[in-house]
Specification:
- This protein has 272 residues and is α+β, with helices and mostly antiparallel strands.
- It folds into two domains: 10-164, Fructose-1,6-Bisphosphatase, subunit A, domain 1 (Fructose-1,6-Bisphosphatase, Chain A, domain 1); 174-271, D-Maltodextrin-Binding Protein, domain 2 (3-Layer(aba) Sandwich).
- 33% of the residues lie in helices and 26% in strands.
- It is built from eight helices and 15 strands.
- It has helices at 10-33, 51-64, 81-84, 99-104, 155-161, 185-197, 210-217, 231-243; strands spanning 41-42, 48-49, 71-73, 89-97, 110-117, 120-128, 133-138, 142-147, 163-165, 174-179, 201-206, 223-225, 248-250, 255-256, 269-271.
- The protein is globular and about 50 Å long.
Length: 272
């Protein structure tokens, strides 16, 4: 692909596309969020989907077309592994992460857009439409948070006007971020092992990829996930925590999460 003339680093140009796509999708989501009818349906995997999911998906795909790269989205067509296994560079998208939180109206949902190269996330954008918090990270260029970004926000703007992650935060407790809507005995057992290691522990329940963002910014020390997630749930956050000097590791193998697998479901993982 030809590099954009203004950006000798093509990753920055692509990340800027993702930032604008995420903000635009967030506007569509907020329009539905302020309405009285979410048009909720149940998908084949028994998870809910709303009109906001579909509108955000369409907006993101439209904005990312300029990249010429394939898009794998939760709400799009999931091509077979034979068709996508040769993708060296592609977008991995969750148009509305935290649909259950959206339906509950607790504000804890996000737009997730990741750029995957050779099975690894090299750039990620997460936008929380209600709070206006925008997170972005590029491998070896850092991770940043900016609140209430302009529509034409860019990664350069985040570098100059945003907060670099992780922030220098002093905590008197070891903070564990866990899912607000998905807990299980295995997660509780893991938390107990952490209690044995840390005398003062604080549990924070959070929805969507905001749990990963908490680790990236330093407000949480760890986010354990023992249970079902899909690649689009973690890819953008993974890129951001990597850019912040942290990682997502699978405890069973002690290896980093990878993407564009034949099976798009993630194994258990720990963000820290």
């Amino acid at each position: 692909m030809v590099l954009h003339p203004k950006f000798p680093d093509n990753t920055v140009w692509l990340t800027n596309l993702a930032i604008k796509a995420a903000i635009s999708a967030g506007t569509k989501i907020n329009e539905v969020y302020s309405s009285s009818d979410f048009n909720i349906k149940i998908k084949d995997d028994n998870t809910p989907v709303t009109v906001a999911d579909h509108l955000a998906h369409a907006e993101i795909v439209d904005k990312l077309q300029a990249s010429g790269l394939p898009v794998l989205s939760e709400e799009g067509i999931h091509l077979s592994y034979a068709e996508r296994k040769s993708w060296e560079l592609f977008w991995l998208v969750d148009p509305l992460d935290g649909t259950k939180e959206f339906i509950k109206r607790n504000d804890e949902f996000t737009v997730n857009i990741a750029l995957i190269q050779n099975n690894k996330p090299i750039s990620g954008v997460i936008y929380a439409p209600v709070s206006g918090e925008l997170y972005a990270g590029i491998s070896e260029q850092g991770a940043f948070r900016l609140v209430n970004p302009a529509e034409d926000c860019s990664f350069e703007m985040m570098q100059t006007s945003g907060v670099k992650l992780p922030e220098p935060i002093t905590k008197n407790k070891f903070v564990i971020s866990i899912s607000r809507s998905h807990t299980n005995p295995e997660t509780e057992a893991y938390i107990e092992t952490l209690r044995n290691e840390h005398p003062l522990v604080r549990i924070v329940n959070k929805g969507s990829s905001l749990k990963i963002c908490m680790v990236a910014e330093g407000t949480a020390d760890v986010y354990p996930k023992i249970g079902k997630t899909m690649e689009w749930d973690t890819a953008a956050g993974h890129a951001i925590v990597l850019a912040a000097g942290k990682n997502i590791i699978c405890p069973d193998t002690n290896k980093e999460l990878i993407y564009n697998k034949e099976e798009l479901r993630n194994p258990n993982f720990i963000v820290q």
